[in-house]
Amino acid sequence: MALALAALTATSAAGCAGGDQRGEGDQPGQRPASSAAPAADHVAADVTFARTMLPHHRQALAMADLAATRAGSDPVRQLAAGIRSAQQPEIDQLTGLLRSWGAPVEAPTAAGAGHDGMGTGAMTGMGHDGMAPGGMPGADGMGGADGMGGPDGMGGPDQGAAAGTESDGMQNGGRPSTPGMMTDAQLSGLGRLSGPPFDQQFLNLMIEHHQGALRLADTETRDGRNAGAIALAGRITDVERAEIDRMRQLLTAG
């Protein structure tokens, strides 16, 4: 009799240990919590977008600051002021995103470029006419091989930053590899102009600059994962497309 009771007790204990594998605090009928890590809130494309757009925006602000004192018309000065008011908060947001991800705010500086996205020779009188080796954009604001594109004014995938880039961030032809960024010679030439000649050159250069920003934003929309960065890319696209339209109108009217 004692042997039978002992066997029954052992069988019941084994059933409790093997039949209920719930963790501490689990309720009957619930599955154990998954141990899979949550999806990352950002990927490399988000970091690249933020770190590339920062110097791009800073260069636009430097160009806009020139317009405040050198532009010949109120519409151009007002346009430049609008660019500054739109892009400074975006710079702040890009910086905040990078810091929240624990990523360096500053990317390795390309040869000849400062932290503000402008080359060391910018605004210091480089060149005789302020023109890049390939010449300035045409009257429609389209650049050369890295600025020409389809109906939306954006270059194709084999142009711009993807074409002939070198390890120092410059293309083989001496142009910055970031889409739309101006050369030292272009910026120094702009800084020597004033009045109507400044207005025309500023509008041409800023159209090309904005077209580069559209390409950066399009890449982030396609490849990024962070919701904040993607939303910012969409906002940049909307604002800068409208500004391109306005600049083209000013060129036509001028």
Description:
The chain has 254 residues and is mainly α. Helix content is 54%, strand content 0%. 35% of the residues are buried. The model is unreliable at 1-8, 13-38 and 109-170 (pLDDT under 50).
Looking at this protein, list some descriptive labels.
about 250 residues, mainly alpha, disordered N terminus
Give unreliable regions as ranges.
1-8, 13-38, 109-170
Number of helices: 6
Cα gyration radius (Å): 28 Å
- The overall pLDDT, averaged over residues, is 73
Major sheet: none
Instruction: State the shape.
Output: elongated
Judged by helices, strands and strand pairing, the structural class is mainly alpha
Separation of the first and last Cα atoms: 111 Å
- Name the helicity range: 40-55%
Oligomer category:
single chain
Kindly state the number of beta strands: 0
How big a fraction of the residues is strand? under 5%
Secondary structure elements and their pairing?
Blueprint: H1 2-19, H2 44-70, H3 74-100, H4 184-191, H5 195-223, H6 227-253
Give the gist of this structure.
This protein has 254 residues and is an all-alpha fold.
